[in-house]
Design a protein that fits this description.
Blueprint: H1 12-45, H2 50-76, H3 92-107, H4 116-122, E1 131-132, H5 135-148, H6 150-154, E2 156-160, E3 167-172, E4 192-196, E5 200-205, E6 208-210, H7 211-215, H8 221-243, E7 258-259, E8 271-275, H9 288-297, H10 300-303, E9 307-310, H11 312-318, E10 330-331, E11 341-342, E12 345-349, E13 361-366, H12 368-371, E14 372-377, E15 381-385, E16 392-405, E17 411-415
Parallel strand pairs: 2-14, 7-8, 8-17, 9-12
Antiparallel strand pairs: 1-15, 3-4, 5-16, 6-16, 9-13, 10-11, 11-12, 13-17, 14-16, 15-16
Helix pairs in contact: 1-2, 5-8
InterPro entries: Phage_capsid, Phage_capsid-like_C
Protein name: HK97 family phage major capsid protein
Main location: virion
């Protein structure tokens, strides 16, 4: 007879979560008290003590660190292993693919390609050499990318088998309405469609290891490769998803044309921005109002899955803002499964968003799942190179990634400008 699963409160992992939640709550309380003191000083003296400002900066960094730690410990128990030997029940072909690829990575072309189960797998080599990584490693890289690439966490990701992906978007719906059973119907207007084709580019990385490392039977080469590749890919693609120009790379949502006009007026493909009213900062009078305006500029149907996106430094500035009742707009995620939020919406930190500056679109808010589409072409390829940089063995790895705005009404920008 098996024992019952212990309640969550009895699990060591949940104890760690609770401890982190407690520290996060304490740090935010200290931040609020220090910020309240700074506001009083500004109102009395016109400025704040440098030591108080420094303390606010340290507390904000500690809150960021604890928030990341909370996400990490909350996900740890459910996160699958990145890679490793095939499980006993795996399909034989998958096990052979893993064994072949590991042999190729560790020993290069000395792998015994004459064995029948490897002959078919060897045909995955392209004209320039190299092999398609096995499915399990491709999935491991994908899982890691989703965990660390900010835009991937909230956008739509589509896997494609060819170089082209096109999506038809209706830029004005068909006319409709309510009528009685025998009432005349007005002619409906045919819907108009716009075609969006996310530009695709080849992303590459070139991690290296020594042959001594590769010869070590206890060195998990698949997990190392998945981690290293995902980190390199995430850095490059994250920048492109935000501000890429679409030339042999994804086109970022900040590269779209922008306008201050509303949804019903703007041209399709143009993203709406709202100005803070002050160049390079929030308005000194009621700074919270523009954040509220930003939220409610988004259609109600899009707000259900909406999120903010900004840098850590911008979030530190936003964290100090209160509403008209003196309540802070940002709140830490102190309940299980509840992320930290701004006005009740999650905040996605992206180092590739602009910092607050005159004219900068430093805050994005929207339903990125509806607004932005990422395309991943199936098949990551690896070419082993033991010659170029001895004694290191390099693994030149490529994959094709695309991205573009697919619904320009689903993303809004806050511009730090007078108008």
């Amino acid at each position: 007879m098996t024992s019952a699963t212990p309640p969550l409160s009895d699990r060591p992992a949940m104890a760690e979560v609770k401890a982190t939640v407690d520290r996060l709550g304490q740090a935010f309380e200290a931040f609020k008290q220090t910020n309240d003191r700074a506001e009083i000083e500004r109102s009395l003296r016109g400025q704040t003590d440098a030591l108080v400002d420094a303390k606010l900066g340290r507390l904000s960094q500690e809150i960021d660190r604890l928030d990341r730690e909370l996400k990490s410990v909350t996900d740890a128990a459910s996160r699958p292993a990145l890679a490793g030997p095939a499980a006993p029940g795996d399909d034989a072909g998958r096990a052979h693919a893993h064994a072949f690829f590991e042999g190729y990575v560790r020993r290069g072309r000395d792998t015994d390609l004459t064995r029948p189960e490897f002959k078919a797998l060897a045909t995955d080599s392209d004209a320039d050499g190299g092999y398609a990584v096995p499915e399990e490693l491709d999935r491991a890289i994908d899982r890691r990318l989703r965990a660390i690439s900010p835009v991937r966490q909230v956008a739509t990701v589509v896997q494609i088998g060819s170089g082209d992906y096109k999506k038809l978007i209706s830029d004005r719906g068909a006319v409709s309405g309510w009528v009685g059973e025998t009432d005349p119907r007005a002619e409906t207007e045919a819907p108009s469609f716009a075609e969006v084709a996310p530009p695709l580019g080849e992303l590459y990385a070139n991690p290296a290891a020594t042959q001594t490392m590769l010869d070590d039977a206890f060195f998990d080469v698949a997990a190392w490769l998945a981690d290293d590749l995902a980190d390199e890919f995430a850095e490059r693609e994250s920048a492109a998803f935000v501000a890429g120009d679409g030339a042999n790379k994804p086109r970022g949502f900040l590269d779209q044309p922008t306008s201050g006009t509303k949804d019903s007026v703007r041209a399709f493909g143009t993203v709406q921005y709202l100005a803070t009213g002050t160049a390079g900062g929030f308005a000194t009078d009621a700074p919270a109002d523009r954040l509220f305006d930003l939220v409610y500029a988004l259609k109600a149907g899009h707000r259900a899955e909406a999120a903010f996106m900004m840098t850590a430094a911008t979030l530190a500035a936003v964290r100090k803002i209160k509403d008209g009742d003196g309540q802070y707009l940002w709140s830490p995620g102190l309940d299980a499964g509840q992320p930290a939020g701004l006005l009740g919406f999650p905040v996605v930190e992206s180092a590739h968003m602009p910092e607050i500056a005159a004219g900068a679109d430093a805050i994005a808010f929207g339903n990125f799942r509806r607004g932005y589409t990422i395309t991943d072409r199936l098949g990551t390829r690896v070419l082993r190179d033991p010659y170029t940089n001895k004694p290191f063995v390099h693994f030149y790895t490529t994959k094709r990634v695309g991205g573009a705005v697919t619904d320009s009404e689903a993303i809004k920008l806050l511009r730090f400008a007078g108008s």
